[in-house]
């Protein structure tokens, strides 16, 4: 495959917006191969494909509104470029499948855009996600299915990964039972998700909190590891909601296989709509998350008051195609031989044999020879005969 010369990064920064990049032929082929493998895996589990508009109506209730690109159309309406998929899929389901049938299994793939660059996205502001949504059911079996599908999808493209699971509802319940204000709860979610013991102590001290709450949160901050983490959490002073969240997580883990999971009970939600279990995957040897998802009881952001009413329960996950291209084992099938076709009949014959046939654009044999050398094309075809360019243009006998 033809590889272009190295990029001039300084020149690229002057031409391309920050957080965007060109995809050249070798990587494009690899990405499309991975995209096809992932979509096929999703389909084999019953997830049907949908395509969603890249342009959406701007909505201040949208979870990514502050980070979305916005534009105004000719009629003065404010639009936004798609910044995440779950709310878009939820909108589609409310509009197109109001009566199901549930559970509804859908898959999607496409570009997303964000104004601010995120380190977890490799500083990209334009990127591609592939994902699934399992909508209309909220059972442990459904959650275990998503864990199994996520792992099998990564395995299908040669990625060995470790799954981490948590339940923001567990942490929510602990903080709500303590009667903490929303601002402080948000700060504690962030600190516990980062596993920062010093920041946790400082935050609790600045809020004048201590005693049993400090001891409980200090334990939660350390609740990361294998199945023993669940037993340790059971020994904490839990209210009904926290106990129910833990029980759900235990059921999911039992169905999937506890020994195959790492548990992080301080795991916070990536989006505010996540209300149940959440999970993420890390490829071996990579510190950055490759896949993430969770359960939600999604609010209906399209309702007139933006209230959290009318949403559908569901769960899903998404993986980043850019990240996948970095960590997936490169097992591209061999590319068919490329030949140079001297006539239409030769091009059709070569393609019928499964070869790639490039047509001639000139009768200048010197130009064709130079191009073939640069592309690494060794054979030409005319009619049903193959040979070198010299052989098929009169300098030698064609080979059959």
Please characterize this protein's 3D structure:
The structure is a single chain. It contains 14 helices and 16 strands. It has 400 residues and is of the alpha+beta class. The chain is elongated and about 95 Å long. It has helices at 9-15, 25-44, 86-96, 140-156, 168-177, 182-194, 197-206, 211-221, 228-234, 240-256, 321-327, 344-352, 365-375, 389-395; strands at residues 48-49, 55-57, 70-72, 78-81, 104-113, 126-135, 161-166, 224-225, 261-264, 274-283, 289-297, 313-320, 338-341, 356-359, 379-382, 385-387. Helix 2 packs across helix 11, helix 5 runs antiparallel to helix 10 (240-256) and helix 6 (182-194) packs antiparallel against helix 7 (197-206). It folds into two domains: 19-327, 2-Layer Sandwich (BirA Bifunctional Protein, domain 2), CATH 3.30.930.10; 338-395, no CATH class. Mean pLDDT is 88; it is low at 396-400. It has a nine-stranded mixed beta sheet with strand order 1-5-6-12-11-10-7-9-8. Strands 14-13-15-16 form a four-stranded mixed beta sheet, with helices on both faces.
């Amino acid at each position: 495959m033809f590889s272009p010369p190295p990029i001039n990064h300084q020149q690229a920064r002057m031409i391309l917006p920050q957080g965007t990049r060109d995809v050249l032929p070798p990587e494009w082929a690899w990405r499309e191969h991975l995209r096809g493998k992932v979509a096929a895996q999703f389909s084999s589990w019953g997830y049907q494909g949908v395509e969603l508009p890249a342009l959406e109506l701007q909505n201040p209730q949208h979870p990514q509104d502050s980070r979305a690109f916005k534009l105004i159309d000719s009629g003065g309406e404010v639009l936004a470029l798609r910044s995440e998929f779950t709310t878009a899929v939820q909108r589609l389901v409310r509009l197109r499948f109001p009566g199901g049938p549930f559970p509804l299994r859908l898959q999607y793939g496409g570009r997303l855009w964000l104004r601010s660059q995120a380190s977890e996205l490799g500083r990209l502001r334009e990127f591609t996600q592939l994902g699934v949504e399992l909508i209309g059911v909220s059972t442990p079996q459904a959650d275990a299915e998503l864990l199994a599908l996520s792992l099998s999808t990564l395995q299908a493209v040669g990625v060995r990964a470790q799954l981490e699971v948590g339940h923001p509802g567990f942490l929510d319940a602990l903080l709500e039972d303590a009667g903490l204000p929303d601002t402080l709860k948000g700060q504690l979610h962030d600190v516990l998700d980062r596993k920062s013991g010093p920041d946790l102590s400082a935050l609790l001290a600045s809020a004048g909190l201590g005693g049993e709450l400090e001891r409980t949160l200090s334990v939660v901050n350390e609740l990361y590891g294998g199945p023993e983490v669940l037993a340790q959490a059971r020994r904490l002073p839990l209210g009904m909601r926290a106990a129910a969240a833990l029980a759900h997580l235990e059921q999911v883990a039992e169905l999937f296989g506890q020994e195959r999971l790492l548990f992080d009970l301080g795991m916070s939600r990536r989006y505010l709509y996540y209300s149940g279990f959440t999970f993420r995957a890390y490829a071996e040897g990579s510190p950055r998350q490759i896949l993430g998802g969770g359960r939600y009881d999604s609010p209906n952001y399209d309702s007139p008051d933006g209230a959290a009413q009318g949403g559908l329960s569901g769960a899903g996950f998404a993986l980043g195609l850019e990240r996948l291209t970095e960590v997936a084992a490169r097992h591209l099938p061999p590319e068919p031989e490329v030949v140079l076709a001297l006539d239409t009949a030769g091009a059709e014959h070569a393609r019928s044999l499964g070869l790639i046939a490039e047509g001639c654009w000139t009768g200048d044999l010197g130009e064709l020879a130079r191009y073939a050398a640069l592309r690494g094309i060794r054979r030409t075809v005319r009619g049903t005969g193959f040979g070198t360019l010299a052989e098929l243009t009169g300098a030698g006998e064609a080979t059959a």
